Amino acid sequence: MFLSVFDMFKVGIGPSSSHTMGPMVAAARFLDLMRDSPFTFAGVRASLHGSLAFTGVGHATDRATILGLAGYTPQDYDAEKAEKTLKTLSATHEINVEGLPPLRFDPKRDLIFDYDHKLDGHANGMMLMALDAQGDVSLRQVYYSIGGGFVMTDAELAAGKDTDEGAPVPYPFKSAAEMLEMAKASGKTIAGMKRANEISRNGEVHLRDGSRRLWQVMNDCIDRGLATDGILPGGLSVKRRAKGIHQALLAERGLNQQAPHTINDWMSVYAMAVNEENAAGGQVVTAPTNGAAGVLPATLRYYLDHVPGASESHIEDFLLTAAAIGGLVKFNASISGAEAGCQAEVGSAAAMSAAGLCAVMGGTPEQVENAAEIALEHHLGMTCDPVRGLVQVPCIERNGLGAIKAVSAASLSLRGDGTHLVPLDACIETMRQTGADMSEKYKETSLGGLAVNVPNC
User: Fold this and answer.
1) Which residue from 8, 12, 174, 391 has the least number of CB within 10 angstroms?
2) 17-159, which class in CATH?
3) C-alpha gyration radius of the chain
4) What's the pTM?
5) Among 216, 179, 218, which Cα is nearest to 197's?
6) Distance CA 230, CA 234 (A)
7) Quick check: bond before 15 cis, omega within 30?
């Protein structure tokens, strides 16, 4: 099983990898399907199902689907051009994309929020349809946005999770147990094995330059969040807090009365900065999702800015180790809040971050696996119940607490020798089972929890 670090960490836009990036990717795939079809088309239509319908407006799924059908992708998104496209489409009810004739599309009629029919494959389902001149459907495809910006058709999902068809990699571990066995046999670290896998597929230069690019985008996102104030969009009137907290922390530096636990505020403010940017529709990196995008950058920034002896030369090892753990969670359980609750998002992010931090602080493979398990175990059962379907409450603060748990988990593991009672594999399987048992109300539908108990208007 091989999942590239650049699949786990993708540069994209907020507020949601599954609700914003995924539908945009699905729409781009459908346009390609239309281009390859022998039929002649005159219009397009889309229907959103499950969580994509229930929290679609708050997550900008409608906007993402429209822009995806208009030819936009997350990696080359231009906010100014997108606004002009939306305005033009609203007036003309026509989509114009390369390689296809003009297509009729009225957002009010042709974008359907279907709250009554959940598609069978996944909670995040959408159906895209191409219409002929008479308005009849002549091409139809179901897509599932399975978390982290990953998209599969109904056929691909039915075929199974292990769809990697590339050349074999040196260390194809599918479980934490296999990962540790391979590390012991090879004498390599987890990052070392992951690096060998990446280089075997894409080369050393791609890995080096791509890793630098990922951290640059993450770090820039933190800095933008720390420098920006105001009110977040969406109607909840949530105030950006990262800038004010950061300014207060800077003012307190060096003062004798500063409490030791203030370091937690630094971790939190880095994470909150990212997730405020995400909530505002800014550029973020899925880590492994947008809703959990602040945990890993905050943990890595904490390491670089606050840990004695930290070095930027360790960033690649941090990302590789984190990606290895994230791949295990995705392959054996889920990173989708709509499928398994927030344990699958912030819980997975904390496990990945704890593993990365443990690794760059000298942890053995056994200690790294222990760190990931501790962090994930103490997110088990966490629900996803965003108020008004917005990735704001409780998501922004939750990322801060996820970073704190990640650092604590790494620290605890480094105090031991790597032996522990609950294997990471058992914890991942428990998370999968818990997600399957969890009520749909608590899986990104905004039908339960905080979403129904907090005034949102």
Assistant:
1) 174
2) alpha beta
3) 22
4) 0.93
5) 179
6) 13
7) yes
